[in-house]
Amino acid sequence: MARWATGSNYALVVSANDPVRHELSNFSDVVAPSDDYRLGRPIVVNVVADTDTARRIIDFMSGLAYGTGGTLEKAAEQLYLLTPPLAD
Question: In total, how many domains does the chain have?
């Protein structure tokens, strides 16, 4: 079972197809989920930042998805799914 990761801590992953969960409260937190995404893992991002920082985080994640052919979907308020191009 995966747990939420905060800051530079990584979530535990059951299998390669399970989304890795990250909670982001400031812009510097985007490194860990970006690294997991680059390894081909789907990412669930819970954005708990102020409005301006949340916008920067989502803009960065959107650019990451677009630049690699992946997708970024809003799953719920402050919750996003970032899926790499070849993930199931």
Answer: 1
Q: Is the pTM of this model over 0.85?
A: no
CA 72 to chain centre: 9
Q: Is residue 79 part of a domain?
A: yes
Mean pLDDT by runs of 10 across the 88 residues of the chain is 47 64 96 94 96 97 96 96 82
Domain of residue 58, residue span: 5-83
3-class secondary structure per residue, the chain: CCCCEECCCCCCCCCCCCCEEEEECCHHHHHHHHHHHHCCCCEEEEECCCHHHHHHHHHHHHHHHHHHCCEEEEEECCEEEEECCCCC
Residue 40 lies in a domain: yes
User: Is residue 11 a contact partner of residue 21, using CB atoms and an 8 Å limit?
Assistant: yes
